[in-house]
Amino acid sequence: MIEIYDLAVAVDWEYDDDLVQLIAAKAKDYGLKARAIWPPDLEAIEHQLRAQELGFRFILDRASLSSPEFTSLIILAQELGTTVFDPPEKVLWAADKATMHLEFISRGLTTPYTIILPPYNEVAHLEVSQIDSLPFRRPFVIKPATMTGGGLGVMKDGWTAEDIQRVRKEFPQDKYLVQEKVRPKIIDGQRFWFRVFYSWGLIQAAWWNDETHVYTELSAEEITRYSLEPLFELSTKIQSISELSFFSTEIVKDSQERFIVVDYINETCDMRLKSRHYDGVPDKIVENIVSTLLRHVRESNSSS
Q1: How far apart are CA 11 and CA 17, in angstroms?
Q2: Other C-beta atoms within 10 Å of 297: how many?
Q3: pLDDT over 90 at 24, yes or no
Q4: How far, in Å, CA of 140 to CA of 119, rounded?
Q5: Coil, strand, or helix at residue 119?
């Protein structure tokens, strides 16, 4: 007899355990059956899926991008009719910052002035004059297009062509972005840098300090007082471009009152709770994301 779960969460990061526990607890309130899939479970679960002893209606995939061994499970589940949040092909496309930069500017979003460089393995030599003539001031930001997460491979204070070459060698198969360094508006010590979460139609924003990585809840009163409504409008546009169900983005309001999308799409959002980690996401935001996911699953089950 086949055992059907409404939702599975594919996870490979130990700090996702709080999210897994929260989903499991709230799933019961929604009348749903949920479980986690950790790396040691992969072989047994694939066998059960092939033998039609096990089935999933939905999978929240938080693992295949960082742990390729999950890929065969995700593909198999899709072939068997499981809906995956989000399909790997969409995630890979949206995770490429060079691609998203071009998509964003073509749709009228304001981004940092950017030069996209080819992979070092393809074009090792750079014309020094190309760097010397950059149309923005030093220091600048250097970041890989795809090998990112937690600041991996990013230099925030680049000054020279030598800096760029050194960073490009870290991931020589990846494209690199050289960007102007965006400086946020500051009022009473508060940096106008935000992380905005999109989850199944729900948009939530929080203050995010780019220097300390600490979140602070953003109130409705602050949204009105500081005219921050564009945060939500921009996130809706980003979703229409990426077509992802769940992601976060970083948006800055600068001293000229411009809203600049500075880190395009984080396709696997850090969901550590602020109550347990100093730089975690406010608990209310995570709880709302989980509730929205489970509500979407329940409503989809009802309509199918």
Answers
A1: 8
A2: 22
A3: yes
A4: 19
A5: coil
Q: What is the pTM of this model?
A: 0.94
Query: Dihedral angle at the C-alpha atoms of 238, 179, 172, 264, nearest 10 degrees?
Result: -10
Q: At what angle do helices 230-242 and 88-95 cross, to 10 degrees?
A: 120
Q: What is the DSSP annotation of 169-191?
A: TTSTTS-EEEEEPP-B-EETTEE
Q: What is the CATH number of domain 3-86+291-303?
A: 3.40.50
Q: What is the pLDDT of residues 242-286, one digit of tens each?
A: 999 999 999 999 999 999 999 999 999 999 999 999 999 999 999
The highest-level CATH class for domain 113-180 is alpha beta
The whole-chain average pLDDT of the chain stands at 93
* Distance in angstroms (rounded) separating the CA atoms of residues 79 and 62: 19
Half-sphere exposure of 151 (CA within 13 A, CB side): 8
